[in-house]
Amino acid sequence: MPRVTAPTDLPIAEVIPAVREALAAHQLVVVQAPPGAGKSTALPLALLDEPWLAGQGIVMLQPRRVAVRAVAARLAEGLGETVGGTVGSRVRFESRVSGRTRLEVVTEGILTRRLQRDPELRGVGLVILDEFHERSLNADLALALLREVQGALRDDLRVLVMSATLDAGLPGRLGAPLVASEGRAYPVEIRYAATDPTGRIEDAVARAVRRALEADTGDLLAFLPGVREIRAAAGQLADVDAAVLPLYGDLPLEAQQRALRPDPAGRRRVILATSIAETSLTIDGVRIVVDSGQSRTQAFDPATGLTSMVTTRVTRDAATQRAGRAGRTAPGTAYRLWSERTHALLPESRVPELLEADLAPLTLELAQWGSPDPAALEWLDAPPAPRIEAARTLLRGLDALDDTGRITPEGTRLLDFPTHPRLAHLLATGHATGRGALAADVAALLEERDPLPPGSGSDLTERVEALRNWRQRRGHRGDAAVLERVERLSRQWRQGLEVAPDNDLPGAWDVGELVALAYPERVALAREAQTGRPPGRFLLAGGQGAALPEGDALAGVPALAAAHVDARHAEARIYLAAPLDPAALRGHATWVDAVRWDTRTGTLIAQQEQRLGALVLDTRPLRDLPPAQRVTALADAIRAEGLHLLTFPADAAQLRARVGSLRFWHSDEAWPDLSDAALLDTLEEWLGPSLGRARTRDDLGRVDVRSGLTARLPWNLTRELDDRAPTHVTVPTGSRIRLEYRVGEAPILAVKLQELFGLADTPAVDHGRQPVLLHLLSPAGRPVQVTQDLRSFWNSSYFEVRKDLRGRYPKHPWPDDPWSHRPMKGVTRRGV
User: Which strands, in side-by-side order, build the sheet including 748-752?
Assistant: First the structure.
């Protein structure tokens, strides 16, 4: 085979020797090169004949299908070949390789599938992760799997991580050498808007495009957040003297190629693109960039398990990437539709997708890999544990994982479908139940954009009907271009399932039953029957409330399966769904014992419920309530509402205070913790035996808490408690006066002053170590003095108190010498 030669007129050529040397010595190498340097189109060719490859091939990952096709075509063109020769490409449903292929350009998910089938990657000597700065989930997963392969199976396998913008700490985190290319980008003049745009962003982009076409030369690339905005802007620019061309991932290959190639008629091009044009693609002739500053991505909420599309501002590194498109082949200009002040406030870089995305696909891949615990792999950023747990919950609902987190035969089957596990389950189960053609149509409609115009309602069944009418050239409504893409995808699914198309109109419940396979937690029951709410409000099986748009045709159905849901509101918004037969839900439901506390009525509810997630389809009384379930439910109720549900009589409250005081005074001793927090934590232990047959708030108020508290006290401490923290103190008159204990304070002894005549020392507890706090009372029982030093009181304060008391209580003795007077409980016939 002849030696492959790479272009030498690109900036990357200067560092190719350094890259060769680094790869010869290291398993893992990082290359940083700015846009246009040739790292994607020259470097891979330059490495094909390296001795360490030993005749093996190279696999290069790209984050998008558009980039795969464009990069593969550019590489093949550099060799004077077409794709499928030395250079091949693979994307979902499309493979252009041959026995001569030595360099494959693939999307990231393709590599994961190959690793699962062949962990040793036989025949591959180098894997290149291009555009790694985007930190896509699949790129992070591929890197983690490749590092394990290098450590366990293939110490000769090389990995090259390539990035246009680089996290300065990346080489160190990977333990890899860095080879950097300065590049040779042309200067790009950045022009900011005076203020941030208001109104629709597509309007602002269209105005900016018109101004730029008049002020500058060359082709123009405009970045918009999504297809809707691209179409709207294209409509406004229909009259400009240029070819207005869309560019986004779902375009047919021919339309993508038209946007990437010079116009056959020699006209200027206005390319309206999503963020797919940020990297990898060099579009010859582009001298102008108009950047809306917005990007549309999926946001996953692990609390609800729902994903929604959100439009966000670009990060500064993405804005740099976009502006760089204008300077790849000549000096250019970039118009940013935001102010320079706003630019300084943008986030510096993108958050790795791994930290924000739905991790169900990754979790299933890890289970198949044999590492259900992500911690077993080396990650740049570890997948968040709550998102992994949410993914496991979903996958268990799809029968893809067992209770231990290991993959099931169904999970292995789902990985054969190059799509999300939800849709894979829909396709696999739909086919197994004889509905393969409908499953293909439904899956394609869920993956593609909505073919019906806005305001068409949420019923997915109508989309299936529109597709099948369009396919048969019957009268239909809908966007023909979108329906064509849907049909192309459906055809690919049908070919994989080996089923013929079905153009009959589906039954009333058929589509909903398939949607329920993909989204079991979004099966929903109407709420108005129970709550009196207006039609269109539903409870999802996952527990969240959801609503249809006002006036939607599905508002009156008793049950539905929701597919597209916006979870950004307290009540989720349903945008795409299909009706379900409520009776059919019973086949998927299970009877469970439900024992719970109703806070509204203050009653323990004990019944059997036929449940599908949070949905209760039927109930029947639970006749034999197991004691353990009663105790657990009542304990949960007390924890939720507080200990005030229980009645603590005075002796019980003082028992807690006495024990708490000794615990406070002697932290090194084994006195039990009877604080509110400790009692709530241990309700089942100390209160469980006393709950008996309690069912209501009144029952809980009558529960004997003292016996439960006493049981918390070890037998050997019971007598010591009475000895060291007695309930009463005997005063000189012989009266036994109750002590009031408060944790952290001295016990209070409220006693009439006259009963202490002649007593010198303040009474004390805890073997005399803790003096009580005396509340000295008048004959009427009103406090006249508070002291812990009785001796000092008799010698000083008493005489001031005596003056007042003698005037108010003349029949009572108020001696000049309280030391010698006998203590008294009441009056005497002789005053003193």
Answer: 728-730, 736-740, 748-752, 773-777, 783-787
Residues ≥6 apart with Cβ < 8 Å to 609:
591, 592, 594, 616, 618, 619
Using one digit for the tens of pLDDT, what is the confidence trace for 59-109? 999 988 888 988 999 899 889 999 999 999 999 888 999 999 999 999 988
Phi, psi (rounded to 5 degrees) for 308: -135, 155
> Which stretch of DSSP H or E encloses residue 670?
none
Output DSSP code: residue 465. H
Single-letter residue type at 516? A
Determine whether 43 is exposed, middle or buried from the number of CB atoms within 10 Å of its CB (0-12, 13-18, 19+).
buried
3-state secondary structure at position 771: strand
| The amino acid at 820 | S
Q: Which class for 84: exposed (0-12), middle (13-18), buried (19 or more C-beta within 10 A)?
A: middle
Domains of the chain: 11-180 (3.40.50.300), 188-353 (3.40.50.300), 360-497 (1.20.120.1080), 520-587 (no CATH), 589-717 (no CATH), 728-808 (no CATH)
Q: What is the pTM (predicted TM-score) of this model?
A: 0.73
d(Cα 476, Cα 786) in Å, to the nearest integer? 93
Which residue in the block uniquely carries the two structure tokens 């309280």? 818
Contact status, residue 362 vs residue 333, Cβ threshold 8 Å:
no
pLDDT tens readout for residues 726-757 = 999 999 999 999 999 999 999 999 999 999 99
What sign has the CA pseudo-torsion 642, 644, 648, 653? positive
Rounded-to-integer distance, Cα 661 and Cα 211, Å = 81
Tell me the two tokens of residue 503: 């153009």
| DSSP single-letter state for residue 539 | E
Q: Are 512 and 522 in contact (CB under 8 A)?
A: no
Question: Residue 55, class by beta-carbon neighbours within 10 Å (0-12 exposed, 13-18 middle, 19+ buried)?
Answer: exposed
Whole-angstrom distance, CA of residue 649 vs CA of residue 226:
67
d(Cα 633, Cα 645) in Å, to the nearest integer? 14
Strands 87-91 and 103-107: parallel
Q: What is the mean pLDDT of residues 231-251?
A: 91
Q: How far from chain centre, in Å, is Cα 609?
A: 30
